[in-house]
């Protein structure tokens, strides 16, 4: 079972057409199961995508893949961002379409092959910004057939993005290797939260020394490796306490704690209450 530190359950107004648009001035650290495109309408931001931090200015774009940790802090008071969040099902084919094999599968399953940012000086940026404007207009007006036109603009943006990505593949690869992507590691931790994974083992997963790994991990998540593991385990323990009748001692063991006193201490530190108190609330 996957648990969800920093996970955002993005609201979709129509589950049969899974896309939403948000106008914001900043983005708190989170991840979700959708694809997100961030457009800087005004001002400038410092954007984080996994362990990479970059400045984006007016008219520039960021592409965030599913399950990538990301945030954005405004660097000027006039900052305005447009975030388009959509599920991959909206643009993917049935499996018989050549675009599925050539484009969407490589992007979704090997995200670091593709660049995360597009600058004002990059090719196709004006065409992509025009497509963004048309998409937003259709989404806001919701005239008859708007779904088709929104999807058409999404595909147009993807097409221009993939065209750009192929030209920049060598540069992107060098930049990504330097950035130390933690996406797969964070996903592994969410899947294997109840197992014992040492700092050394985690560091090997991302080809870093343990000391360097600890610095990068704290920079990305805002927590130490141990704090992050504890947060995952406590979050899952709270869910089990509220949703099941499983004994508290068994829950502690299920989420990875071998010592129940330590489990109680960690739980209270993170939740500011005890497992017993949480269980009583569920009755």
From TrEMBL:
<dbReference type="InterPro" id="IPR009057">
    <property type="entry name" value="Homeodomain-like_sf"/>
</dbReference>
<dbReference type="InterPro" id="IPR018060">
    <property type="entry name" value="HTH_AraC"/>
</dbReference>
<dbReference type="InterPro" id="IPR037923">
    <property type="entry name" value="HTH-like"/>
</dbReference>
<keyword id="KW-0805">Transcription regulation</keyword>
<keyword id="KW-0804">Transcription</keyword>
<feature type="domain" description="HTH araC/xylS-type">
    <location>
        <begin position="183"/>
        <end position="281"/>
    </location>
</feature>
<protein>
    <submittedName>
        <fullName>Helix-turn-helix domain-containing protein</fullName>
    </submittedName>
</protein>
<dbReference type="Pfam" id="PF12833">
    <property type="entry name" value="HTH_18"/>
</dbReference>
<dbReference type="InterPro" id="IPR014710">
    <property type="entry name" value="RmlC-like_jellyroll"/>
</dbReference>
<keyword id="KW-0238">DNA-binding</keyword>
<dbReference type="InterPro" id="IPR018062">
    <property type="entry name" value="HTH_AraC-typ_CS"/>
</dbReference>
<dbReference type="Pfam" id="PF02311">
    <property type="entry name" value="AraC_binding"/>
</dbReference>
<dbReference type="InterPro" id="IPR003313">
    <property type="entry name" value="AraC-bd"/>
</dbReference>
């Amino acid at each position: 079972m996957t648990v969800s530190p920093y996970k955002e359950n993005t609201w979709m107004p129509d589950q049969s057409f899974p896309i939403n648009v948000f106008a914001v001035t900043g983005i708190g650290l989170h991840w979700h199961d959708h694809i997100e495109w961030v457009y800087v309408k005004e001002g400038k931001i410092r954007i984080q995508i996994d362990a990479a931090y970059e400045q984006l200015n007016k008219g520039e774009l960021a592409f965030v893949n599913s399950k990538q940790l990301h945030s954005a802090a405004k660097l000027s008071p006039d900052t305005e961002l447009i975030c388009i969040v959509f599920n991959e099902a909206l643009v993917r084919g049935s499996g018989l379409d050549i675009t599925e094999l050539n484009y969407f599968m490589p992007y979704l399953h090997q995200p670091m092959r593709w660049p995360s940012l597009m600058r004002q000086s990059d090719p196709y940026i004006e065409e992509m910004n025009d497509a963004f404007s048309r998409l937003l207009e259709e989404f806001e007006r919701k005239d008859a057939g708007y779904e088709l036109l929104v999807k058409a603009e999404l595909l147009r943006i993807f097409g221009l993005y993939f065209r750009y990505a192929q030209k920049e593949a060598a540069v992107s690869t060098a930049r990504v290797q330097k950035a130390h992507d933690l996406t797969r590691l964070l996903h592994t931790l969410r899947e294997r939260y109840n197992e014992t994974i040492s700092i050394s083992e985690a560091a090997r997963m991302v080809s870093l020394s343990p000391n360097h790994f600890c610095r990068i991990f704290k920079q990305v998540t805002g927590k130490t490796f141990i704090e992050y593991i504890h947060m995952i385990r406590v979050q899952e323990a709270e869910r089990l306490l509220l949703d099941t009748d499983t004994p508290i001692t068994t829950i502690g063991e299920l989420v990875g704690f071998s010592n129940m006193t330590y489990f109680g201490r960690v739980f209270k530190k993170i939740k500011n209450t005890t497992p017993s108190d949480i269980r009583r609330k569920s009755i």
